[in-house]
Structures are given as C-alpha cells and as structure tokens.
Amino acid sequence: MTMRCRKTGNKTILDGEILLPESKRNQRRWRVAYTAIHFTRLLGSLSKKALESQTKLLRSLSYVAIDVRDDTPRENLVSLMNVDQRALADMVKGKNLESLKQLGGVAQVATAILQTDVKNGAKEAGVAHRRDVFGANKFKKPPVKSFLSFVVEAFKDMTIIILLVCAIMSLGFGIKQHGLKEGWYDGGSIIVAIVLVVAVSAVSNSKQSKQFEKLSDERNNINVQVVRDGRHRHISIFDVVVGDVVSLKIGDQIPADGMFLNGYSLKVDESSMSGESDHVEVNGNDHPFLLSGTKVTDGFGFMLVTSVGMNTAWGEMMSSICHDLDEQTPLQARLNKLTSSIGKVGLTVAVLVLAVLMIRYFTGNTRDDNGRKEYVGSQTKVSDVLDSVVGIIAAAVTIVVVAIPEGLPLAVTLTLAYSMKRMMKDNAMVRKLSACETMGSATTICTDKTGTLTLNQMKVTEFWLGKETFGDNALTEIESEVYQLLQEGVAVNTTGTINKSHATSVPEITGSPTEKAILSWAQMDLGMNINETREKLEIIHVETFSSEKKRSGVLMRKNNEKVIHTHWKGAAEMILAMCSDYYDRNGALKSLNEEEKVQLGAIIHSMASKSLRCIAFAHKTVAEDNGQASEKLQESGLALLGLVGLKDPCRPGVRTAVESCKSAGVNVKMITGDNVHTARAIAIECGILNPEQDMQNGAVVEGVQFRNYSPEERMARIDNILVMARSSPFDKLLMVQCLKEKGHVVAVTGDGTNDAPALKEADIGLSMGIQGTEVAKESSDIVILDDNFSSVVTVLRWGRCVYNSIQKFIQFQLTVNVAALAINFVAAISSGKVPLTAVQLLWVNLIMDTLGALALATEQPTSDLMEKTPVGRSEPLITKIMWRNLLAQALYQVAILLTLQFKGKAMFGVDEKIKNTLVFNTFVLCQVFNEFNARKLEKKNIFKGIHKNKLFLAIIGITIILQVIMVELLKKFAGTERLNWEQWGACIGIAVLSWPIGCLVKCIPVSSKQLIDPKNTATNQLSFSFTQPR
C-alpha cells in the first residue's frame, strides 16, 4: 500500500486507497525500466562469475540455466520508495488525527505503508535501504569556522593592528632611506614576527575548535533501544531509521518523529518544542504523536518512527540554530578581567615610555650608535624624524603587547582541551567546560550507590515465602497457586523483556539491573515461562516505578475472565506495610498481625545487613464494579507473595577511591533509595562509614527524617551525615542546597530523570553514561561513561590538575610581565632607549604566551594533587606562595638585566649591539629556565616526573634551538649580534641561577592568611574565588 496527498477543502489528508500519486507515476515507470536493466546486468555479471569459477552449469542444446539466489530476505522496496515522506512527516508534526484515521490508524501505517511488524519491528536486512530512501537520522550542521576566520580574528587585536601599521611605515621609510636590499629589515622583521604570532595563535585556536566539535558530536550520540527482527538491541540514535520500533522509558529522549504503538502511562515533556511546561499524555486514541527531542517523563511504551533527521520537527529547528562551541568558562571570564587590569598597567608604562622617548628625542638627548645626536632641529630630514618616531611608537606598542598576558585565556583553553581529551580516555565525557575547573575545588561528593559504588550486576541470592527461605529447590517446593500468582506478578509488573530466538539458545534479557535479575531468577531458577504468561494476560492499568514511591503496580486480568488482579512489586518494607495477609510455605493464606509483621521486618533487616536489596511481591483479587474495571490500584489489604534479596557487589577499587577522596580532604556522602540497613552495610564495605557509625551518632539518616529537620537543625547536622537512605530526589536536592549554603563546593552523581534538579543545583553534576537517562545527562556537566566511582575520583584529580596548571602558567607569565615592564621602563627613563627591540619582544611574547602555555598546560595529574586539601570557594587564584615565587624571580631578572644594561659593555668589553644581544639572550634564557621552576609551585624538586611530559621537554628544546638561530643566524631580522662561547656561557650561567634561587625561596614559610582581601573590591581583580554558584 502506498499513499499520497489529497486535498479536501482546505485540509490535506492522506489517501491510502490510491496506489500512487499522479506526480509519481512516471517515476515508477522509470524505476521499473531501471530495475529491468539492473537485473539484466546483474544476470550477466553472475553468469560471468559462474564461468570464471568453473561452476557446473545445467546445459541443454538450446539454453544455459544459472541458479541465481539471494539469501537476504527482501522487503517490498518499491512500496517504500513510493511513500510520500513529506505528507507523513507533516501529519506527525501537525498532529493531524483526521489524516491518521484515513490511513487506518498507527498499526495500518506500520504494516501497510512502512512494511514494519508492530511486534517484531523492522527487518535488519532492510535497514540500509530504509536509510537510502528516507535518509539518516542526522542534522545538518552549521558550517565549521575556517582556518582563515581564526587568522582574521587574531589580526583584529588592536595592538597587533597598531604594530602592523608601525611596521608598514617603518618598512616604507627604511626602503626609501637605505634601499630595498638593506631597508626592509626593521619593518619586515616586525611583520614576519607578527605573522608568526598570529599563525601560532590561529593554529592553536583552530585545533581546539575542532576538538570541541568532535566532543560535541560524541555528546549528541545517544543510545536508543529498538526492536529489529523480534530482538531488542541498543543502537546509536544516528542509526535509527524510518519504520523502526523504539522502546521508550522514563528519562529517554524521543530519537525521531513517530507515533505511539503501545505502552502504559506514557507522558512526554514537550517544552523543548512547544515551550509548554505541562507534560502531555501520549496514547493510541487522541494523542498518538511523538516529536523528536522531547523527553519521556513517566510510563513506558513503544513508538513507530515515521520521520528522521531533517524531516523531523527537531531537525528543522536544530538546523536553524548555530551552536556556540566557544563557551567561556567562569575562570576564563575572570582571567580576561585580570588580563585587562594588567594591560592597563602595561599601557600606562608604555605611554610613559613613549612620552619620555619623544621628549628625549626632540630635545636632542638621544644619540645613535656613533654617538651623534639623532635630532638636530631643522637639519634633520623629515623622513629621518618620521622613521625615528615610528620606531619609538613601535617600541611603546610592543611593550603593551608583552605586558598584556593574553596567554592566560589561551592557557585555560589549552588546559581544558587537553584535560577533556584525556578525561575522555579515563571514561569521563565533559559536557560543560566550566566543570573541569570547578571540579578541582570540590569539597563534597554526593554519590549514588547502585552502579556507582556497586557493579550494577544484580543477582537474586535469597527467596523467602512467608517466614521460610527456599534454596535451589524452590521450583519443586513452591505450592502451585502461589507459583502461578508469582509468575503473573513477575511477568506483567516489569519493564524488562526476554528474547529467545531458538528453543536451545540462552535467553537475552533487557531492562534495568533489578528487572534483569528478577526475570533471570524467574526464568532460569524457577522455570517460569514469562513470555507465554504475558500472552494469556490483559493489562488494564500500570503504575510505573517512581523514586518517591519506590514501587510499581499493575492491574490485570486473564484473557476471557472478569476477575481483576492487582500486583505490586517494590521496596520490601513499603510493600509489607500495604499487606494484611501472607502466603506460607504450603500456599495457605494467613492473616498478618503485628507480631508477624515484626518477624518479617526482622527477616528484611537481616537480608539488608548482608548488603542485599530487598524486593517484595504482593497480590490482591478485585471484582469488577458493575462490569467496569476500575483503573485505581488497591494499596491496602494485599497478600504478601514473597521476598527476594538481590546482591550487587561493590566495585573493585571503590574502597581505595573513597580513601583517596578522604586523604584529599573531600567528603564522600552516599545517597540511596535502599533501606537503612542495606545502605549502612554497603557504606561500611566501601569505606564511607566506620563500623561504629550508625543512626545513633547522626552519620546515617533516612530521607524522611532529613527533610523533617528544622532548617537550623539540618544545617547543624549536615556535615556529620555520611549516608542518607530511603531518599527521594527532593532529599538529594535539599542536601545539595544545604551543603552549598554552608560553603561547600558540591559534586553530585545521578542517573534518573528525577535527579535532574539536584544535578543542576550542584556545582558539578555527574551523570551516569550506562544507567543514566538522557534527561539526567542533559542536566549534568560531566558524564561518567562507565558509571564507576573511581572515574569520579579521576575527574576530581583532573579538575585539580586544571586548576594547578593554570596557577603555574599565571606565575610564569606574571614573572615575565613584571620583568619586561620594569627593564624597559627603567632603561627608557634613564638612557632614552629600550634594550629589547619590537621583534625581540614579540619573540618573548610568543615564548611565554603560546609555547609556555602549551608546555605548562599539558602536565598530567600527579599523586601530590590528592594530598592537598580542596581550595573551596574562598582561596584566591593567585596565592601568597605564587606571589613569593614570582616576585623573587622577577626581582632577580630585573636586577641582573639592568646590571647588564648599564654595566654590560664594561663587564664584557663589548659594543652597544653585543651588549643588547646579551640582555636579550639572558632574558629569554631566564624565561626558559624559569619554566622548570613553574612546574612545581611548592615542591623543591622541580624535575620530578619531567620525563613523563615529553611535550614540555620538546617545547624547551625547540625554544632553545630557535633562540640560537635568532642570535647566531637571523642577525638583521632580530637586531642581534653573534655571541662567542664565553658570552653564551655567561648568559646560560646567569639563567641557571634561577633554579637555586627558586629552591631557596621555597624555604621561606608562607602563612595561610591571604595577602589580598577578596572582599576588597579595589584589589579583587587578583583574588578570585575559583568557583561560582551556578
């Protein structure tokens, strides 16, 4: 069956009766002709292959017969090609029920139009053809920024523009005065230096942009569960095709446009599409339409995919949105302010230098290399005056270039990009850049239990019927009536599925770990036939599991029967509270009095103390009310069917990870939905609790107890609470809010849809990559891909590494800034000349900004990082330790370089040019050796672990080689003179002294008090809190 558009009045409806639209009849003729030609060629090709392989042919006098087989099952491909995709897409996007009725409903669209079996899904063999016909489930991306755009951005910097103008003027004057052969050196050298700085900056930014783009693609790659060939399988959202049957549960993102096939209590949040916050109930009657990009908030079900990619409503919207991958983190914003502040200081110094040099020049106090006055009034040529003025302006502008630490934001970008890449390898995908830096100052981690601290590989290890336990022979000992009720309860009250392709094959079970464990126990240990039981039952209403109620229920009846049964499953003590009877070992129904409730409670307690998750099953028979089945599930007067205990072992290494957090001064709090005894047992096993800690000393609380505290009592107890059991998502959110109010930097793990508020409220939201819903992932900052607590600790270590790397670079860069400004300012005021030329200063700028950032930003985390206490919110970014280190190095550099500037000629017996080269060379080498000092802010051994950072050693080596080339070979370009071995030795010796000086300075004790009051707004530019509440 095919379909086309037919207009009736002003409405467009779909007509399923006419075989083909008028516009497609000619297309069909061409396709038939194409198919005939294609088959003829295929036949010829196959016969040729058969002859080449010497296949035995059936021969007769008149013909040759070739056996042509295609073992791949083929769908009605021509029929799919004739589907009017636009009309189908418009029907779903417009939610046109009238058109759907014209087609015969969702099931008819699935089977007759899209050739899909509503139960078994599409055929795997036809997926490729479906993708060819209907397109892939991918969106068009906005064009990627070209490398040229990064170059243009780098050239937009005002200081670069001024320098470029000065360079062009200098080039013009130089060529006019000295000719092309000799006159291009000064201006040309500055232009080459500018181009080099811009190129390095553009390459770096382009590379980071591509990396962030790649991570963005990874972030959008969502896992989807589909049914194909009757089997449930997980695929990428990008592999979903039209005709797929997709399984939906709470927290899933709708992967494409489609229609509801079957399910229960399915509600969808369409706020991303419509802006309406109310959740929409989806059903097969009056609202079967599902739009891609929306989220499932309740229930479960199956949908038929009708449109993918750019044909969906989400695709149309996303194609018009340009994603900004250049997210600016809070730290980058604060560093930009720091850069601006230092830039103002540099600009002031540059203006002073400009004024002093101009005054000295025009008053005749400036002399050339031969000792003659450069300006002698009207005797000096205008071109010479302009040339000198341009040179002075270029020097002043270059001072600004060196003074502005534009490498700080670059260092943050490089550090974040490097850490993001490495964290991906360590099973952590960063969704928001700011989380990398904020994680470094985390003081508290609130973690889930299941799947994070444990393996999430549950197995039923105990089964209790009444007050007696059953071992491996439960199948033969359970009374038949109880067995049947238990089988029905397990079969219908679950979101899991069992697929068994052959009678002898091992069944494939899908669902949550709890559901999988119970289904596996029922199928394997008790011999229950779950799928066959489901076929015999009619489900009337479903109440899906929720974190608040911690139970799920089903209202059902057997086919052709009127008696209605209620089945509940959930947390054992909560189900027990709903029961008034219980079944004993012999199948007898006994009344459940208070004494027996206490005995059963003790059984649950004993199971929980062995780290078992306790699940109870209960049942009640309800008569029809006047022939109508009520959709309200009974919540009292139930009969307890049985108790199961599920064991979920702790992850290997989780105890070590918790100890690592404790030694790093980070508190670990476990928040779980399990009961108090299970939670405490697991917490002790993981090392979060000591055996003597329990509810009496306030280390363990229940969610209801925590939320009923007064605000004052809650704030007083919050630091002592280590385990919160039977918690709801609201309790988790409340705990996060209290911790933040008390000044903690909070990281929270979560996997459920209801965890979204806590994940958003926390300073760092960590969602789970395997068990986490798409809603949880979207609300989080970092996705832990393996759901492992050890990976959370790895993220913490990387966060501290990011923070530490940025501090290293700030210390290194500010040392250069202070030294360069002081040397140029003092020399200009006293002698009227700056010792470092524009080209030399640009070279220094390149070393410290780009190469320095790259060298110091790529340090890997060390064990030392986890031995420090967290920095929290209050510690300034530039600490007193950093001030001590950078001021000591800057004072040494200023002192030694000014000595060379004023006494160098006499000390070395050289002329002015060689003396200036000595100053330049010593200055650069001091920065190179000071890079080693910057590796360790507090440790005296600056070489520890240096062999592991090959990039650092490579950059140091490249810098030294380039410096030698600058001094020895590029004399005219860099304005240098060649140095002999003694002079090189002196430069290296002076620079090497920065190592022992750095070691001695680190012996000076520094108190914990802040040098800068963070509350003082006048000086707060240098004293940042590292994290901000979001």
Automatic annotation (TrEMBL):
The keyword Acetylation applies. Residues 99-175 form the Cation-transporting P-type ATPase N-terminal domain. Gene3D superfamilies: Calcium-transporting ATPase, cytoplasmic domain N, Calcium-transporting ATPase, cytoplasmic transduction domain A, Calcium-transporting ATPase, transmembrane domain, HAD superfamily/HAD-like. InterPro entries: ATPase_P-typ_cation-transptr_C, ATPase_P-typ_cation-transptr_N, ATPase_P-typ_cyto_dom_N, ATPase_P-typ_P_site, ATPase_P-typ_TM_dom_sf, ATPase_P-typ_transduc_dom_A_sf, ATPase_P-type_domA, HAD-like_sf. Keywords: Acetylation, ATP-binding, Calcium, Calcium transport, Calmodulin-binding, Ion transport, Magnesium, Membrane, Metal-binding, Nucleotide-binding, Translocase, Transmembrane, Transmembrane helix, Transport. It holds the Pfam family Cation_ATPase_C. This is Calcium-transporting ATPase. It comes from Salix koriyanagi.
